[in-house]
Write a sequence for this structure.
């Protein structure tokens, strides 16, 4: 993982806003179903700090992964204040696949710890001030924005709950015994159709192959996933803002396979 200054522009939008208003949906307050807090964490080195966001959900409620599926709402952290921070990356724990009313979403239930690694350029405490946008669902769904503020300590000790979340990440291809992902690309009227195939051990029930593009402006459909013995395959449409075929860089794709037993991050694909 590279935490370079340009990541700040891609992943951290610096904005000026006021406090979020109280939010309600269908007579329910967001405060009744979710609580969000910052865990300060510890300084890993002179230029790295590991912190986390804790999302505590009421029983039966769920929230979403970075690629939530067409029935979900992506979870996005936006910093208002970035002095001393030159980049960040969320280390997403392994999510679950949910089905409701014939629609698929990907996310978490119960308490969720999202480790956040910051690239920093100063010693001592650094104040974090931002907003977490997320969706929470039960029998109804509500998109909410939560103010998030706190201090990253200049030293700090390792937090067991953050370590557990870090260890619950998707496996790499080599850790899972999976093969290299290969992509076949064909033009369609408004973009490209990509078919990914890889040798993959059984990941459990409800196997779901997810294709993501590095540019959030480019829409990627849910992949139709199928298995043939030791091979898994997924096909998705990729549509850019101008809605037409374009030059796809395979290195800009990220492929993840999620099952009930494990998840595997295959990274990018080859031709």
């Amino acid at each position: 993982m590279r935490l370079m200054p340009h990541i700040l522009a891609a992943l951290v939008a610096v904005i000026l806003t006021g406090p979020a208003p109280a939010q309600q949906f269908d007579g329910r307050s967001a405060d009744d179903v979710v609580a969000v807090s910052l865990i300060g964490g510890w300084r890993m080195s002179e230029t790295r700090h590991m912190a986390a966001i804790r999302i505590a959900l009421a029983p039966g409620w769920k929230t979403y992964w970075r690629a939530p599926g067409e029935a979900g709402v992506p979870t996005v952290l936006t910093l208002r204040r970035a002095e001393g921070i030159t980049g960040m990356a969320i280390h997403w724990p392994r999510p679950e696949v949910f089905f409701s009313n014939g629609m698929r979403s990907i996310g978490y239930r119960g308490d969720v710890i999202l480790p956040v690694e910051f690239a920093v350029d100063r010693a001592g405490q650094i104040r974090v001030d931002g907003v977490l946008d997320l969706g929470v669902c039960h029998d109804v769904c509500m998109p909410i924005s939560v103010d998030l503020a706190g201090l990253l300590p200049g030293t700090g000790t390792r937090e067991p709950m953050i370590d557990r979340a870090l260890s619950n990440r998707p496996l790499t291809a080599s850790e899972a015994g999976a093969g290299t992902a290969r992509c076949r690309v064909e033009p369609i009227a408004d973009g490209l159709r990509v078919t990914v195939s890889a040798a993959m051990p059984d990941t459990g029930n409800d196997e779901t192959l997810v294709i993501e593009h590095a540019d959030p402006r480019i829409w990627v459909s849910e992949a139709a996933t199928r298995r043939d013995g030791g091979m898994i395959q997924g096909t998705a449409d990729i549509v850019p803002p101008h809605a037409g075929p374009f030059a796809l860089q395979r290195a800009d794709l990220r492929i993840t396979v999620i099952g009930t037993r494990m998840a595997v991050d295959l990274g990018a694909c080859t031709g």
